[in-house]
Amino acid sequence: MVFSSLTFCTIFLPICLLAYYGIPRLVGGGIYNRILLSNYILLGFSLLFYAFGGVKYLALISLVILINWGAGFLCSKKQDSKHIRRLGLILAILGDLGLLFFFKYFNLFIATIENIFYAGDLKLSERITGVFTGNGTGALGIAEIVLPVGISFFTFQALSYVIDVYNDTAELQPNLFNFALYISCFPQLIAGPIVHYRDVATQITERQVGSYEFAEGIKRFCFGLAKKVIIANTLAGIVDKVWKTDISQLDATVAWLTSICYTFQIYYDFSGYSDMAIGLGKMFGFDFKENFNHPYRSESIQEFWRRWHISLSTWFRDYVYIPLGGSRCSMKRTCLNIFVVFLLTGIWHGANFTFLIWGLIYGLLLIFERLWFGEILKKNKLKFINRLLTFFIVNLLWVIFRAKTILDAFLFISRMFVGGIRVLNLLTYLSGMSLIAIFLAILFGGFVQAHISIKAVKGSMVICIVLLVLSLLFLVNGTYNPFIYYQF
To answer: What positions carry a catalytic annotation?
Structure first.
């Protein structure tokens, strides 16, 4: 189940809110008892929410909760032995990353082994293609592992808690149920933002929700839902339709249309979901940090990564880049640190060479900017050129991210430049609604928000109600509702 579904919007969320606020008031008691009871209710609904992705995976998330909760005690400053603290940290790292690598990369590992050692009569070129596409021969007869929903997010979130406790930058959470709520809280469970425990520790036990905060949460949720359902889903129809065709026959006009549509689709898809998560958090009394800040207005690749998927960038900065030395060391070592971070960023996104190449290219681009090109961008007074160049590069790299294989990615990019111009072919993919969606995508991709705050818009609640009604109508009238980061 995703937030942008009729089941969630019309059944799950209303019942959850009614139970969350109604039952503690009926039971009565002091503020502490009310928060405690509301935590149990929210935890129960969060586990139910996750069960929609597969009841059997409740055991997995429970295991992650127990491993990291127990490791927190071992890593706590209350432990006199440094060896025990380090042991706790190592156990958490091995447990979290071990589960993550098993579920995300086991299939690719088996496919690689089959293509190298059990390929039978396959030619060398076919073996290489099999490795790069992740398609095994089936010789070992091992069934594929199904990726649990949200595992990349909640394992990183759990690991950040243990590391912070070890570094004494976060307090130990002695209550298992409160820790379980931190890990499994459904607003940010399956797609982030990745929340640091130290940012919500007090909110778990002392939060209060006023009418203003609740209204702001509704507004944020409605805006996010509209971004996802009205814009992202409409653009997804174009993108998926083109990618299902023979891409070797694409002309440049359709290829560019598709790449630009996907560039906006993934932004409105993911940022819309983050908006909904932040809005839901406000409804339940949590204050989650922003995950996007108008990334397509960036004037450099470095700035883009400060604005895109902020919680992931912050996680790698705090737990990989800075511990490696960050930028406080030599330029050579700094560049190596950047390369390692974006190598891991690519690997985090999935077991596909497309993600690996995507991450490595970003790492090389950031090193290139730090060594030389960044100064040219800073000195350039025509900032719109910087933005166009950055958008051009980001757009090309999203093609690699979207492709099923690295071979498809390079083929698609080649068609963007040598496919020829056939403007009439656009009519095959464009409709009145898709043109409106493209216009809205460009307009609200950061240009409007940079000058006008949503909070400053008069009658914004009326606008939100209109957006909510339109979004629900889109959901009722259509069955196409993909979510890109659901697979991570």
So the answer is: 349
